[in-house]
Specification:
The structure is a single chain. The protein is an all-alpha fold. It has 2 domains: 398 residues, Growth Hormone, Chain: A, CATH 1.20.1250; 56 residues. It has 16 helices and no strands.
């Protein structure tokens, strides 16, 4: 496979890149664009966790059952994951600024609806709408970053910042969710998005340049149906694994259907006149490695945020706010790793040594966490592995997101960005299903033959479930190490002449 497969078609001028307005202070404007995009991205990624801490309060207020509680999370994941590729292609065809602004506005409106929800059904509907508008907003934001920053040093720095935001959003969501739930109420975990949305919308209106609709722009309807239903089935199948047995048709039936539909989608993309996801976007070795790295790391990260939250809250007795604060060192380490990886290491030695080292550090940190006990201390036993994991994730996420969109032509920037987000969403769904199932089984096996009412037995069973999740997440990161080492090319990636141009001011 060639280093760059996204070359401009003969006789067809690439559409003008959408970025910042053309004037003498454009360099500074580009960084303001990054700030606006970062705010929008943070709003999307923190919503994957900010509501989680508020779920018990929302359940008590609205009176829904434990069985229905998972749908507050699942509705968002289903809509977001299944509509991402469509959202990315809409941004490519009809304008990234338009897609960005519609996505921000719709996400804010859905958040307001959820905050005002008076019933379970209204809250689930609002979460699904959030996911749908997020599927339009997230790829539009990343593709705007791709088409605005392509000068290697600037792009490295910009993606280091953006990747740190994407990687730390879950931890920020836990902290913000804890603060809002504890000091206000659960509805503010949704209302807070209005503040993010106002900043992103006003910044987008001011700084982004409206692009022209591509002549003859059209949506690949068969491809859209195949991939949307296929991704829905895949995410839904993994979500069902949490509440159904893996042998249930509700689980494996949807997974098989999703795999078949996505296989049919891949076949159709080789024959469609205007494919939704041109295979030239995927058929590059570094890009393929980056997609795989995003999927595997997202699956493994779930253990850190969910099971360590359980440990801090239920075993060590941390409050919601203190639990969120406990993750801040991980965020700091992630940001350091992101800048070192994208600005210093990858531009000098390439991704092949950097990303596998990140996977190795994250795996080592998770193995370290398996030693946590009932009387472990935060500063001595939790903080050190958290720092190692944060540094490792910082070496994975930003370089992978950068290289997943490097060399992509301007006309494909949106759908390439959507593919990265889709990999992260599917990875998170896989991690949720597999690790929850494995953790639950470990707890059940531990209690067998013991008194389940004994508080010490219950506490140790919980520790056994957390430890099992950490071990398996470490296996995920270990697999990522092998995959990234084998797939990434040696050396520094070269800039593709046919890639989306820098927006010169």
């Amino acid at each position: 496979m060639s280093q760059s497969t996204a070359e401009p078609r003969a006789g067809v001028a690439a559409p003008p890149a959408e970025g910042t307005r053309g004037d003498h202070d454009g360099h500074a404007r580009r960084w303001w664009v990054l700030a606006v995009i970062g705010v929008a991205q943070l709003m999307v990624v923190l919503d994957a966790t900010i509501v989680n801490i508020a779920l018990p309060s929302a359940q008590a207020d609205l009176g829904f059952t434990d069985g229905n509680r998972q749908w507050i999370v699942t509705a968002y994941a289903l809509a977001f994951g299944s509509l991402l590729l469509l959202g990315g292609r809409i941004a490519d065809l009809f304008g990234r600024k338009t897609a960005f602004l519609i996505g921000v506005t719709g996400f804010a409106a859905a958040s307001a609806l959820g905050g005002a929800a008076g019933s379970f059904e209204m809250l689930v509907t609002a979460r699904a709408l959030q996911g749908g508008f997020g599927a339009l907003l997230a790829p539009a934001a990343l593709s705007l970053l791709t088409t605005t920053f392509t000068e290697p040093r600037e792009r490295a720095r910009a993606f280091g910042i953006y990747g740190a935001i994407a990687g730390s959003g879950a931890a920020v969501g836990l902290l913000l969710g804890g603060v809002l739930t504890e000091y206000l109420n659960w509805r503010w975990t949704l209302y807070v998005n209005l503040a993010f949305a106002v900043v992103a919308f006003l910044g987008g209106m001011t700084l982004l340049q409206r692009g022209r609709r591509r002549p003859g722009a059209t949506i690949d309807l068969p491809g859209t149906l195949l991939v949307t239903i296929g991704l829905f089935a895949l995410v839904y199948g993994f979500s069902n694994a949490e509440s159904h047995d893996w042998s249930s048709v509700q689980t494996w039936g949807y997974l098989v259907a999703g795999a078949l539909l996505l296989s049919a989608f891949t076949w159709w993309q080789t024959r469609a006149a205007h494919p939704l996801l041109p295979l030239r976007v995927l058929l590059d070795r570094n890009r393929g490695a980056s997609f795989a790295a995003s999927l595997v790391s997202s699956a493994g990260m779930f253990a850190v945020f969910l099971f360590l939250t359980y440990y801090l809250r239920l075993t060590l007795g941390f409050s919601a706010v203190r639990t969120g604060l406990a993750f801040l060192p991980l965020v700091a380490a992630l940001m350091v790793g992101a800048q070192v990886a994208t600005v210093v290491l990858v531009p000098r030695i390439g991704p092949k040594p950097v990303v596998p080292v990140g996977f190795g550090l994250a795996a080592a940190g998770l193995v370290w966490l398996t030693g946590l006990g009932l009387d472990s201390g935060y500063a001595t036993d939790v903080l050190p592995p958290l720092l190692v994991i944060g540094l490792g994730i910082g070496l994975i996420f930003p370089p992978a997101m950068n290289l997943a969109t490097t060399g992509v032509s301007a006309e494909d920037a949106g759908v390439a960005s959507a593919a990265v987000n889709a990999m992260q969403q599917i990875g998170g769904s896989i991690g949720t299903a597999l690790l929850n199932t494995l953790a639950t089984s470990a707890a059940t096996d531990y209690v067998a033959g013991k008194d389940p009412a004994d508080p010490l037995v219950k506490a140790n069973a919980a520790l056994e479930s957390y430890s099992t999740a950490y071990w398996w997440a470490a296996v995920f990161f270990g697999a990522g190490l092998v995959i990234s080492f084998l797939l990434y090319r040696r050396g520094v990636p070269r800039q593709d002449a046919g890639a989306a141009p820098v927006v010169h001011m």
